[in-house]
Amino acid sequence: MPEGHSVHRIARQFAANFVGSTVAVSSPQGRFAEGATRIDGHRMIDARAVGKQMFLEFDNDLWLRVHLGLYGAWDFAGDISVDPTIAAANGRMGQTNQRGTVLDSAGENSLHSIGAPRRTRLRMSESEKLEPEITEFPPEPIGQVRVRLLTDTAVADLRGPTACEVLDPAQVDAVIAKLGPDPIVDDGPEAENRFVTAVRKKGTPIGLLLMDQSVVSGIGNVYRAELLFRARQNPHTPGKQVSEETARALWRDWVRLLRIGVETGQMMTMDDLDDESYRKAMASRDDRHWVYKREGLPCRICGTHILLEEMAGRKLYWCPVDQA
Which of 108, 210, 303, 321 sits between 20 and 30 A of 155, alpha carbons compared? Predict the structure, then answer.
């Protein structure tokens, strides 16, 4: 499932390529035909993400809410501005030097060699993939497209979302009110205090609270495992037994890691890497995380084998020594 950084990056694509334009909205699949007619032909005036949910505002005071869930994805195509962290790697996210100049696979500065906008196709979900340039515009829909958003120069196709609906402002406010704080939306003291209070009043294990979108927005399996290891926090500890200091440290670390994810397109969770190690980590998940997907391998700190267990139906990775 896409985590918070992915949804914020998708919102950025809409801000760069759709906001300010009149949009033709259709439902090639047919399942969203009624909703599409409500916003068809209107100008998109805003694109924002809160946690794992995205909201697109139109000039008739209506919003399109999308939650990608486990299987959803957006395909962008046309003369779109491609984020250099994608273009430099030709879609293989992370195969680029993020420290300083952004280089493409030939070692050239992608901001100049790739150029923007570019007539291409870009898939954005849990990961991002840049596909070959398109030969006609708009391209034919591929697969079961729930909704198509089309301007004179760009198209976005949505497939397989958990939620796709048109809402009025009051309904949008009601959805957002149920969500926990999102550091990209608000990383100030009020958001931090809200998170700390929510955690420390519950007897639920902290490993579950971090995945509860009403407690904090945007954290999924990867960030949950990595945040808890970085804090040396046992995932089974009830929230009300987590110290205030640790709860605040978890929030501040989430602020930092989320921003790194939005800027690089990668859930980079390891610190203090030299340039070569950083490039390896950006190119391969095996070198990017402390515990996630490392079950049975030695902990990078103590050497104990990383454990894998199930917590409320989701996989949990942790070190039984460093997080004892």
Answer: 108
d(CA 280, CA 276): 6
Q: What are 79-115's pLDDT values in tens digits? A: 887 665 554 433 333 223 334 333 333 333 222 322 3
Q: Which two tokens stand for residue 293?
A: 């997907």
Residue in 118, 256, 314, 315 annotated catalytic: 314
| Structural domains of the chain sorted by starting position, each given as residue range(s) with its CATH number in brackets | 4-82+117-176 (3.20.190.10), 181-318 (1.10.8.50)
Task: Report cis status (omega within 30 of 0) of the bond before 117.
Answer: yes
- In sequence order, what are the residues at sequence separation of 6 or more whose Cβ sits closer than 8 angstroms to the Cβ of residue 278? 98, 99
Over residues 314-324, the pLDDT tens digits come to 999 999 999 99
Give me the catalytic one of 52, 200, 224, 288: 52
User: Is residue 309 flagged as an active site residue?
Assistant: no
Quick check: is 2 catalytic? yes
